[in-house]
Amino acid sequence: MLRMTMYRFQAGDMVGAVETYTTALSLPLVSHRHPVILTNRSAAFASMGRWKEALSDCNVALALWPLFSRAATRRATCLFNLNRLEEARDQYVLLIEENPFDDSLQKSLHEVEMSIRKAEMEQLGARALELCQSGKVHTITKHEEWSGVLVAAWNRLIIVAA
C-alpha cells in the first residue's frame, strides 16, 4: 500500500496519494509508521496548496515523534505559507539549533526574516501614508518611521505617475 502511495505521489496524483495515505493510517500493521505517513500526507496536501491540512498532519506527527526533523521542517514551511511568519521563524531557529550546518534551513530562515521585515515596512508605509493624507504635521523620530514615509511616498509617486 505504501509503495502504491509513493507511486501516486511521484506521478503527481496528490488526491490519490492523500486517499492512500489516509487508508494506510487506519491499518494496524503500520501504526509505528504513523508520523512518517502523516508527514508524507502533509507533503501531498502542501503540493495542492492545502496548507492548513498539511500543518495539521505535521502537528500530529510531531506529537507522536517530537524529534522528527522532516515533520518539523515541513511544519515551518506550512507556517510560512499560512503567513504565520513569527511561528515559522521560531520553528526554523529550533531546527537550526539542531542542524547548524544545514544551508537550506539557513536560507529558509533568511526568507522568513525578509518576509517579516517586508510586512513591517508595509505596515509602516501604510501608517506613513495615512499620516501624509491626514494633512497634519507629524514629528518623525524613528528610523523605521522614516523608512515607512519614504516607502509610502515612493508608492504614491508610482501610483500618480501611472
Return the CATH class of the largest domain.
Mainly Alpha
State the fourth-level CATH superfamily of the largest domain: Tetratricopeptide repeat domain
Query: How many strands appear in the DSSP assignment?
Result: 0
Mean of residue pLDDT values: 84
By CATH, the architecture of the largest domain is named Alpha Horseshoe
Low-confidence stretches: 157-162
Tally of helical segments: 8
Query: Per the principal axes of the C-alpha atoms, what is the gross shape?
Result: elongated
Q: How is the biggest beta sheet arranged?
A: none
Oligomer class: single chain
The fold-level CATH name of the largest domain is: Serine Threonine Protein Phosphatase 5, Tetratricopeptide repeat
C-alpha-based Rg, rounded: 22 Å
Order of helices and strands: HHHHHHHH
Kindly name the structural category. Answer: mainly alpha
Give the number of domains.
Answer: 2
Q: Please indicate the percent range of residues in DSSP E strands (runs of 2 or more).
A: under 5%
In percent, how helical is the residue content? Answer: over 70%
Termini Cα gap: 57 Å
